[in-house]
């Protein structure tokens, strides 16, 4: 099979690789489309030569492992998957075939195309983990009591799913974004939107929410955004979740701040950078639950995928990485692989 592979000089090129074999609890997918996330280029930059890049894929089930229940998975189904890319020479999302644990995948409903579905896996997983594992908010169909949450960078891929899931959980949502993105975010459920570049953004959001923000998710989590997001919280503080890990120099100890890492949901222990994370049964079970829920929630229109930009096939991954690094994109970068 063809796959996008890290080279000795750090670049990404297409190489031939053997088709991976699914383990007992895994399925083999013929990849149709793949979606790019910031973690793809960041982890590839530190990865050893020879590994396959990419985490998010949409594909057709072509083989079932020996322990995969035939009542749950059918050959020919199209499913979206989130796997850990840039770690293995025999498996990754940016390839013509990929394997993954069967219960950590979702059937793509008929109202969503494989291209659209490629925008979902990691951003959706991160939003699920932030809200329901870290913040312990009520899970569908239960609802909270209209408490306020701040979503910093609501127009980001993660931010769009945090907004939708927070509304589904019964919260009121305030968010930041460039003004041209406001209609999109309001359509997703945001109650209050302000421009993050506005010098009075904190004041405006505090006034609009009655200074009652008690939950938060910072979808950027670098270059001062964690400190900035803490400013939106009510005087007595609350709980803030970040998507990156540097929690030094935070000004408000009453805003309890912790990070989330979506890879923990994949059912294996792991080392990320230099930090070891043990296997978490709780996180894995949560992700499996929401993978199953996804088919219904997207199928019924309660959740919507992000806008996408298909820039080509596997040979365009290096270009996609450069585009994402530049920040000159506003849509989810997607690759067409087996369409």
From TrEMBL:
Species: Sistotremastrum suecicum HHB10207 ss-3
GO molecular function, one term: oxidoreductase activity, acting on NAD(P)H
Name the UniProt record assigns to this protein: GroES-like protein
Domain Enoyl reductase (ER): 10-335
SMART domains, alphabetized: PKS_ER
């Amino acid at each position: 099979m063809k796959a996008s592979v890290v080279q000795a000089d750090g670049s990404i090129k297409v190489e031939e690789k053997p088709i991976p074999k699914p383990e007992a609890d895994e399925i083999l997918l013929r990849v149709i489309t793949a979606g790019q996330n910031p973690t793809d280029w960041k982890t590839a930059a530190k990865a050893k030569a020879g590994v396959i890049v990419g985490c998010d894929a949409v594909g057709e089930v072509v083989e079932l492992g020996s322990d995969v229940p035939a009542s749950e998975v059918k050959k020919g189904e199209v499913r979206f998957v989130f796997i850990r890319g840039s770690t293995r020479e025999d498996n990754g999302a940016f390839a013509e075939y990929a394997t993954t644990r069967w219960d950590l995948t979702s059937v793509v409903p008929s109202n969503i195309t494989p291209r659209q579905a490629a925008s979902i896996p990691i951003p959706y997983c991160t939003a699920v983990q932030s809200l329901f594992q870290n913040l312990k908010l009520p899970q569908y169909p239960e609802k909270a009591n209209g408490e306020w949450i701040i979503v910093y960078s609501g127009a980001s891929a993660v931010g769009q799913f945090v907004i939708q899931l927070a509304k589904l959980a019964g919260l009121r949502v305030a968010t930041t974004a460039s003004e041209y993105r406001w209609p999109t975010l309001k359509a997703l459920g945001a109650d209050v939107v302000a421009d993050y570049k506005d010098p009075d953004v904190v004041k405006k959001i505090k006034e609009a929410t009655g200074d009652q923000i008690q939950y938060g998710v910072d979808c950027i989590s670098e270059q001062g955004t964690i400190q900035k997001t803490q400013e939106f919280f009510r005087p007595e503080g609350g709980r803030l979740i970040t998507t990156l890990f540097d929690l030094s120099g935070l000004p408000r100890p009453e805003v309890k701040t912790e990070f989330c890492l979506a890879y923990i949901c994949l059912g294996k222990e792991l080392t990320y950078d230099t930090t070891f994370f043990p296997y978490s049964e709780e996180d894995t079970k949560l992700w499996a639950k929401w993978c199953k829920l996804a088919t219904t929630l997207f199928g019924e229109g309660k959740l919507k995928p992000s806008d996408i930009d298909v820039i080509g096939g596997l040979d365009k991954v290096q270009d996609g990485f450069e585009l994402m690094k530049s920040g000159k994109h506003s849509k989810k970068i997607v690759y067409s692989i087996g369409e």
